[in-house]
Amino acid sequence: MPHHDSRATHGPAANHGPAANHGPAANHGPAPRRNFLAEALAILCGGLATLPPIAAGIWAFLDPLGRRGAAAKFLPVADIASVPDDGIPRQFAVVADRVDAWTGFAAEPIGAVYLRREKGAEKVEAISATCPHAGCFIEMDQVEKCFRCPCHNSRFTLSGGIVAPSPSPRAMDSLECEVDGKGSIAVKWQNFYTGIAEKKVKP
Amino acid sequence: MSDSPRRDSPQQSRPAGKAPGLLGGLADFLDDRTGYRAVVRAALYENVPGGARWRYVWGSCLVFAFLTQAITGLFLWASYSASSQTAWESVYYIQHEMSGGWLLRGIHHVMAQAMVVLLALHLMQVVIDGAYKAPREVNFWLGLVLMMLVLGMALTGYLLPWDQKGYWATRVATNLAGLVPLVGPAIQQLVVGGPDYGHHTLTRFFALHAGFLPATLVAMLVVHLALFRKHGLHAKQPITRPDAMFWPDQVLKDAVAMLAVMAVVLGVILLPAVRTMLAGGQVDWGHVGAELGAPADPSQPYAAARPEWYFLFLFQFLKVFEGWGASGEFFGAIVVPGIVMGLMFLMPIVGRWKLGHRFNVCFTLAILAGAGLLTAMALNEDYCGLWADKAALADVRKLLDETEGDPGKIAAALGNDAATIAAFEKRAKKLEKIRHSESFLAAARQAEADAERAVELAGRPGKIPPTGGLELVRRDAKTVGPRLFERHCASCHAHVDPAAPGAAEILAKSSAANLHGFGTARWLEGLFDPKQVAGPAYFGNTAHKEGEMVGYVTGEMADADEWKPEEIRAVVAAMAAEAGLAAADTPAELVSRGRGLIADGERCGSCHTFHEKADDSGEVEYGSAPDITRWGSKEWLVGIIADPTHARFYGESNDRMPSFGKGKDGGAAILTREQIELVADWLRGDWYRPAGH
Ligand code: FES
Q1: Is B488 a domain residue?
Q2: Residue-wise pLDDT tens digits, A94-115
């Protein structure tokens, strides 16, 4: 162990004297010489050596960027009998198979929609329960007959319209919805970006 | 390091002239090989101009708080498992089953909050004392970065238990991150770990919380401390007392302050337990320290979603921009906080001007005061229902109810007087605030009950299934039953204890029987009570109001000659026994006597079938009224909920009740079999109860 030897030779004095600052090189090697090529190579080699772990890490870390949610599908959520034509929205769970990284869930509740029919109307309207402000779960206020977000007090009319003034930048998100011959209501389940005026589908 | 300027410090190495003992020899050897004495000296013998002071302790307290977090965090790590089926479960295990787990988690949780307070104090002290000015600018900037790292750890840590609270708060936080121009959506996708919240949200938050952020923090902290030493302590002017050494004078003060911080933290954790003990109660240690909500459920609303209290001001700040549309949220969540941070980074430069320092001090105090004010506003909005005087606004409530909030009608009722209307509107706003608070308080209570129940379920002898705690909750009649009832049954049926205050009002509004206590003797006694059977709790608001059953109960059964009171009692006992809900002390003879009376073709049996044998074709021929074989049992209830129009139940005479388990023309049913069972179990009060309750 040459290092040990050099310390031993100089003894304790070397630890206190200014010479110690220069280390063994000052005594044994030639005076420091700027060698651009050597410096550049040292940096390059060192950098190249550390690059693979960092690059591999970042590569894997960025994986979610390429992931897309399940393609928007029409999912059956309810029977028309459970949505009376009284203008009052009813809340239904949206159930679908869901994949969470390595786990596959069969028929899991993945969110909620409000379904509603105007008085005397056949047509069913579907509104997402996710708040367009920042994504909280909007609830219906039975007494006040409106939608209310528990987070920042955004309020919406029963048809999902915005009640001003509101922290929310837009009305509740309506969802496409179909009723088949048997009266089964299917909703096209989609998520939207929150906090912007435009209703933009999340990929 | 060898040319330390502190060679004149009071304690040199070993005093010269004395022969080293064994230990001394070892120390000499170590010092020779490592030079540790110089390092220790450099660390301890720092000159403190003007002597040790209490106002310098905050920095050390912060380091101490961080150490506490590192220690407790590492031990928590040894028991935590980050995935959406194990995070809540492992935290439940730490909190409720592991010995000392509650204390470990409690310290980590409360110290995190203490750290935020200490940060604010340290920042205030640095700014007020002008310690951020040249040559300490870089150190000040490092301090701000450290502050953001600590806040980042607080934010990421909130999610890790994967309970409802953390889940919904994190959804809001990550959605706000998505508002950053250009890269926002990508950042959001990266931290969430995909398009949806799940395993990778947890693994990423955990890696940030326990890896990336603390590692960065340690690196920065080392530089922060090194720079602090390089520039020396910034003494508060004027200096009136002689200088002192860092060790032991300032260290003593620091250590006392650390002890005080720890005492406060332990106090916060233990105070509720001590109170319970003093009141003579039994402390459930699983409920001491940090709380744990119900497992995260994306399909279950969580109206009590709030960030940790030190982020409440940001949360409240978003409400300030009400009505600004999309730009409001962008301003509130990104622009303003960005500007504030930017101004703080500029402080050392602004501080060079004469008035700059004053500006910096005022600015810092204003920010802290503003944050305090916003926090108070947020708390007031959420909790004002507890102290606000609602009675004073009763007339507002009444008018709003009567007019259904129609502005035209309100104006007419107030005589179309502008001033009165304006005053009314102001009071209506107040009422709206109180109502908002009340719904928050109700949600918070519900959340607490749900959390309690989840923990109860997780503690079953059967333990948590591999699919996780959420599965337990979703299959729990006590949790899910009332939600399903509320959504599908409550528009007609009441479910209210008739003795409860306000019950009459609720019953009057219902259009079908009150199902509270359905199947019990209490419920049956009311059914056979001539005064009640046609009331709103039974058939009063249904098409059967004038039906045969009501006629029979108010006629024959009211006649003591036809039905002796003990005979009615026997029928009640027998029916409750059919439901499996008879009281344990019900005499068997009473039940069998009741059974005989029910089957009697002259009495109940004239309309109802009761344990009727199937005929040769395997069919039972039902009577004109519902079959009451095993009436009120789970099987019976599931049957009637699934299809009341079946001949076994009401058949043609069914009054408006939907067939919940039977889709029209083979379409999907309103409720699945499992959901109907959950409602039936809940109505019957049939759910898991821990032993000893
Ligand atoms: S998330 Fe709904 S108001 Fe903010």
Answers
A1: no
A2: 989 989 999 999 888 888 999 9
Q: Given the cut 0.85, state whether the ipTM is greater than it.
A: no
**Interval B455-499: pLDDT, tens:** 999 999 999 999 999 999 999 999 999 999 988 898 889 999 999
Q: Residue B209 Cα, ligand 1 centroid: separation in angstroms?
A: 26
Which tokens sit at B437?
Answer: 């608070």
Question: Are B412 and B371 in the same domain?
Answer: no
Express each pLDDT in B388-422 by its tens digit. 888 888 888 888 878 777 788 888 888 888 888 88
For residue A169, the domain's CATH number is 2.102.10.10
Parent domain of B438: 388-472
Q: Do B199 and A15 touch (CB under 8 A)?
A: no
> Please, are residues B301 and A128 in contact by the beta-carbon 8 Å criterion?
no
A200 within domain boundaries: no
Q: How many domains does chain B have?
A: 5
- Show the domain range for A58: 3-64
**3-state SS record for B489-553:** HCCCEECCCCCCCCHHHHHHHCCEEECCCCCCHHHHHHHCCCCCCCCCCCCCCCHHHHCHHHHHH
* Structure confidence at residue A28 (pLDDT): 58
- Picking from A146, A144, A112, A145, the residue whose alpha carbon sits closest to that of residue A130 is A112
A92-A93-A97-A100 Cα dihedral, nearest 10 degrees: 150
Residue B649, SS3 per DSSP? coil
* Residue A57 sits in the same domain as residue A132: no
Probe site for chain A from B12, B208, B299 (most A CB atoms < 10 A): B299
CATH number of the domain encompassing residue B269: 1.20.810.10
Residue from B4, B36, B189, B509 whose CB has the most chain A CBs within 10 Å, to mutate:
B189
**Measured distance CA(B264)–CA(B617) in Å, rounded:** 78
A101-156 pLDDT, tens digit per residue, is: 999 998 888 889 999 999 888 899 999 999 999 899 998 887 778 898 888 888 89
User: Are residues B554 and B584 both part of a single domain?
Assistant: yes
The whole model's pTM is what? 0.89
Q: Is the pLDDT of residue B16 over 80?
A: no
**What's the structural domain count of chain A?**
2
Residue A33 lies in a domain: yes
Which secondary-structure segment (H or E) carries B172? Answer: helix B164-177
Q: Which residues of B touch A167 (CB under 8 A)?
A: 318-319, 321-323, 328-329
Residues of A in contact with B302 (CB under 8 A): 136-137, 150
**What number is the average pLDDT over the span B309-325?**
86
Ligand 1 centre to CA of A197 (Å) is 14
Establish if A148 belongs to a structural domain: yes
User: pLDDT tens digit string along B551-593?
Assistant: 999 999 999 899 999 999 999 999 999 999 999 999 999 999 9
Sign of CA dihedral B212, B215, B218, B220: negative
A76 neighbourhood in chain B, CB within 8 Å: 668
Q: Could A148 and B301 be called an inter-chain contact, meaning their C-beta atoms sit closer than 8 Å?
A: no
